[in-house]
Each structure stands twice: as structure tokens, then as C-alpha cells.
Amino acid sequence: MYRYDEFDHDYVRARVAEFRDQTQRRMDGALTEDEYKPLRLQNGLYLQLHAYMLRVAVPYGTLSSRQMRTLAMIAERWDEGYGHFTTRQNIQYNWTKLTDVGDILDALADVEMHAIQTSGNCIRNVTADHFAGAAADEIEDPRPTAELIRQWSTAHPEFAFLPRKFKVAVTGSPNDRAVTKAHDIGLRMLRDADGNPGYEVIVGGGLGRTPMIGKVIRDFLPKADLLPYLEAILRVYNLHGRRDNKYKARIKILVHETGIEDMRASVEAEFERQMREEGGPVVLADPKQVERIEAYFAPPAFADLPAKSDALDAAMASDPALAAWVATNTSEHRANGYSIVTVAIKGTGEAPGDATTAQMRALADLGERYSHDELRISHEQNVILPHVKRDDLPAVYAALQKAELASANAGLITDIIACPGLDYCALATARSIPVAQDLSERFAEPARAKAIGNFTIKISGCINACGHHHVGHVGILGLEKSGIENYQITLGGDHTETMAVGERAGPGMSAAEVGPAIERLVDAYLERRSNDDERFIDTYRRLGAEPFKDALYAA
Amino acid sequence: MPIVTDTGFVPDDSPALVALEDIAVGGEGIALDMPLDADPEVVAPHFNRIGLIVIPFPSFADGRGFSLAQRLRALGYRGTLRANGHVITDQYPFARFCGFDEVQIDDALATRQPEDLWLAAKDRPVPPFLKRKAQAWVA
Lengths: 555, 139
Hints:
Order of helices and strands of chain B: EEEEHEHEHEHHH
Number of domains of chain A: 4
Largest sheet of chain B: 7 strands, mixed
Largest sheet of chain A: 5 strands, antiparallel
Number of domains of chain B: 1
Helix content of chain B: 25-40%
CATH class of the largest domain in chain A: Alpha Beta
Number of strands of chain B: 7
Oligomer: heterodimer
Strand content of chain A: 15-25%
CATH architecture of the largest domain in chain A: 2-Layer Sandwich
Helix content of chain A: 25-40%
CATH topology of chain B: TIM Barrel
Strand order of the largest sheet of chain B: 2-1-7-6-5-4-3
Shape of chain B: globular
Distance between the termini of chain B: 42 Å
CATH superfamily of chain B: Aldolase class I
């Protein structure tokens, strides 16, 4: 894991002092509310419906047990005993008092964390594959790249007042778990024909009210050229992105209106200009710093184990619940005898991504004891234990059961993504959490969920799409119609490397109608699938939308 | 309309600004009013005749001026570069990093954010990336 150097330490401390000073200047009147707002947002502080919300960065989703314990302590001391893990691998505290913010930021700085650039019209906290450094299918660990981008983008003097927010995601695996095609910039690590490392650069993806799938702007960018190329994209966007309408200000609209060919020409010209600079581009990273970063992400010393765990096999034979959990919630690790564990923060009837203080501490203990002191937050709002010995899985499962975190539903229909919705958010037009809770109860029976198989439901409480509804196999968008919550259903979305934006199924429905409609949809799928392994999304692609629309609106 | 520099407020004694379309006219040491949507490459052939380029900031939230300044410097402009309009003290270090020498603000803003706040802004936290670069250059 990355460790701060003196510059990181000094900077994070200085930012806390600066934010206290900015808040004081707002009180004094030196700053107007309009001027203070972006400064506040770039320090992670939102004004929500009932209180301030503080969004803390978990850079590329990686954190240590010590950091997780601090997150728990903050929830206990300054919030209401829980935090909310988000689709951007961050954690939000929904009941923050303005007067506590400086102390919370100091507590975060103690464990090398911060809330910088988790909001505002700047380059946001960079996200990455939550299986980074552990997945069997990985070409290269994406986190050194993500960390380099974090360092480059932190308080970048030129890009702190962009037309709109700007999100970058990195994946090191051909199986895209970082949703790279739905980001302002997506980076996919790959190798050229000669084996040299580099990136496929994707630009202009995004969800929100105008969902767009990102387009490839550069097939292969040599690794060393990354920062000048990013700088070129950002410069073109900063100069030419629309500022007349906030709903048309994202780079996806610039790419759409300019066309990818012209956009590519502008970016390449800006990139070439930098490459011609005397002594090379100013923004090139110091190779020593790159080496330093990479060294921190060297894999832990894995034990030399057989691929098969006799202890686990014996335990699963006598405990079907354990066997079911292992089948759904563990993934293939690159090292023999290890697994990646997905801990579902999706208990039946609970708000997706909400974890209590006790749960956070239990997770920290498990990370320390069984996972080389590492934890991850996934964009699916789950917590990952990346390096667990298969021999230890029964003990981990038992501990998770105690902490009420043992739902065996990773990737299943109850592994629902939902934004905070109208229960918390000032932008929301409808509630998301109660819909997620209702659905998680309807499909709570493990055998039924398992029979349905891989099935993603994603719920957003407004058109801004924080719940990624466009790319759920089933997307649910909560709107408000004459003062009543109304939910639109989309079908056929996909957030992986075969990304697709879901198609609207028909007229909206009330909150009470959503659950029964989804049950009819699922029944229609089970009747029509060609075999037990055909996922809903595959059946949908084979048969088209009609039978599923009919089922949704059969009542 | 004071001008903010690293040493504090100074009065504005700059010559009248020349519009971009009149750039070919004028003699030496002209002061150019640079529109935000202009291409810096168009100005580059005239750099040796320009003593001051003024880039407008219609709103502190409009960051185009930072990129424009950066491009002008990258193209080799060595004269004075001034940001003019709504820039707040918190942005002063950013403006300096991007190549601006000074900032011109209106009297109302100068009253609300007086000289001592601008002088203190010089000491705002420097991003670690830039500090590391600086260290690498020294080494």
C-alpha cells in the first residue's frame, strides 16, 4: 500500500489548516457563499437535506485495517454510528456538523487519509479495479497508475475550476471491474505487440441524464506518456468544454458535439506540443517517484500453498451455507491457495453500502488477521478482503456471520446498488433505499437468488444516476411526478467491458408496483432461459426486450 | 482597480489595451486584451512586440484563463501576464503556477479581500506533485 512521504503529510495537514481558515473567512465575509462553496466542496463537504455530508476519499478503493478503524471511530464519535460506502469507492458521513469538520479531517490525516477533491468541478478521487493486485486475470496492478494520477491531480493549479466534475478510472484487467467506459477518462492497461506496457485511453463516457459509452481516443499510449496525455485531454476540455449549461458541461458532451475524430486531433496536437518542449514535458513524473510508488504496491509475500484446500472442502461438505457463500462471494486469486472475498454490505432489508461502527471494526480485524492488512471498497458498495487463504475461509465466514455481514449474494439479484436518494440527498427526486430494501426482502431466499444467478439491479433517486441505473441489467430511476414518487425501469444495461446502456421499458410506476413488476420479470426470465447458466442479460440479448416488457406491465 | 503582485497592491499604470483584431497595427510594447476563446498560436508571432497580455476572469469559477496562460507561456511568451476580473485570494498561487505575474481586481473585491489576505495567499499549501518536481530539478 502507498505510504505518504513528507510532502503528502505536510500537504494534507496544511489543507486542514487552510480549510479552517477558509471557513473563518466565510464567517468574516471575506468570502461570499458562492466563493466558499467550491472551496468547501473540494474539501469533501456537501450541504445535504438535513445536515452536512462529508465524503472521505478512499483512493482507488484501497485501505488498511488501521484506516478502517479510524473510519469507524469517526462514525462513532462525530456521526450516528455508521458510514455509507459509495459507488465511487468512497465513504460518506451523512450527519456531519460544520464545527466538527476540522477535527474529522485531522483524524483522517493521522492515518494518511483526506477528503480532498471528492466533490467540486475538479479531477475527482481516482477509482480502480477493486480486485487490483489480487485478481487471477490481471495484466498489471492499476494502483500505481491511480496513485500517480492522484498525486498529479491533487490541487492541480490549472484544473481546479473545470466546467464540471471529472472522473478517472483505471483497470489492469481485460475483465473491466472499474466501469472504465462510464468515466470521463477510462484507462485500460495492456501490452503492445512487443510486450511494452501502456494504456488504451477511453474518453467521454458517463451516466447522468445523458448516458454515453466512452470512446477510444488512443489505442495504445506508452506508459511513460500518461501524464502529458492526461494533461492534454484536460487542457482541451478546460478550454473548450461548455460552461453555459451545467447539464451539458461534462466532457462527454464536448466529445459528442465535437466528434471523437476532431477531439482526438486537438488532444494529440496538445500532447505533441508538450513532447516538443525543451527538456521534455514539464508534467512528466520523476522516475524515482514512480519507482517509489510501484515498490509500495509490490505483492505481499504469499505462502506457497496447494491450489486445493482440504480443510475448506471438508468444512463445505458439512456446511451448505458456507459452501453457498464460498460459491458466490469468493473470486479467483492469482496465488495458489488464496481467494478474494467479497463481503456484501447488503444485508436483507438494509440500505446498500451502509456499515455500522461495529461492522467496520469487524472488517478491520478480518483484514488484519486474514488479508495482509488490506481492504478494498468496490463500486458495487461492497468491502473486499483481497488476499485470504482458502484454508481460512471457514473462519472468515464465521466471523462475518457474527458481524451480520455474511450475505451470500455477491453478483446476485440482492447485491443491489442504490444511491442515498431522497432519504439524504438534496438533489434526489425520489427515495432509493426503500426500493432496494423491498427488493432485497422479496429475493431474500438464498436458493431462489442462487437459481436466478448473476443479475444486477441498480437504483438512482434522480436523473444524475449516482446509482448507475443505466448500466444495471435492470435499472430503476426514481423521479417525481405531481408530488408522487414514480419509477422508470430500464432493461439490458451492462457495466462491464461489454458495456451497454439500458433501454427504457415503458411508463413509470409507483414505489409499490416496482417489487411485483420485478418479480414478474424474473419469473419470465426463468421460464425463457435456455439453460440454468444463461444469465438474465444473455437471455435478454437473445430474445430482445418484448417478453420482459410484457412481464413488467402484465398487471 | 488595484493590481495584486507578490509584494502587495500596486496602482494600474499600464497602457491602453489593444484588441486582438488590431494586434498587427500598434508598435512595440503593446498591451493585449486576450479573449478567452482566442487561439494563442495566433498571438505567438507577435510575442516580441507585446509587453502585457491581459486575460479576463468573468467568474472565479471559470478556469479557462489558467489553461490559456499555461499555453501562452508554453509557446514562449515572456512578457507580463495578468489575470483581470473575478479571481479570489485562494486562487492566487494557482494563477502564479500557471504563468500569471499579477491579478487585477475591482475595488469592491479589494475591499472585501484586502492586501493582507493576498499577501498571505502566497503561503497557501503547495501541491506535493509540484514540490516533488521542484526537488527533482534541484537534485
